[in-house]
Design goal:
This protein is of the alpha+beta class. The chain has four helices and five strands; from the N terminus they run βααβββαβα. A hairpin with a 5-residue loop joins strand 2 and strand 3. It starts with 11 loop residues before the first strand and ends in a 14-residue tail after the last helix.
Amino acid sequence: MVQQGQGLTEFKIAYFDEIDDPLKVTLLFQLSLFFTATPKVLEELRANDDRYTPEFGIFALTEGGDVAAGHLLMKISTETAAGRLDVGGVNAVGTHPRFARRGAMTEIMNASHKYFKEHGLEHSVLTSSRSLGAMTLYERLGYVELARSSVAMK
């Protein structure tokens, strides 16, 4: 839990299946995904993409059960100069604007790093948009920028 008194809020960390109403998660993902993430779409994504972990996603919940922030968890197989390496993946990162800058994403990222280590994944990767202002958080958590990319979609 995040300590109170520093402008931060306490959050409970929970996996996707522990959320009482999947609609709460889909509303959060409207902020981070480029497609409409209905509960049915999320279940199809989970069932058809074996890169997602069994826990599927990790979230910060308020005392009242609102989803403050979250992202999806992945195990991604990559090819390196030294051979194949499995890494943790962070996908569809989103924080509800009402809970921005209150420690929710830091709590989730720390819990994700612990999860990855417990599952033998020494590294993790994520993609982000600089325009969202999240790079400062990711850099504080030890991430380094590998490449810049622009993606357009119609």
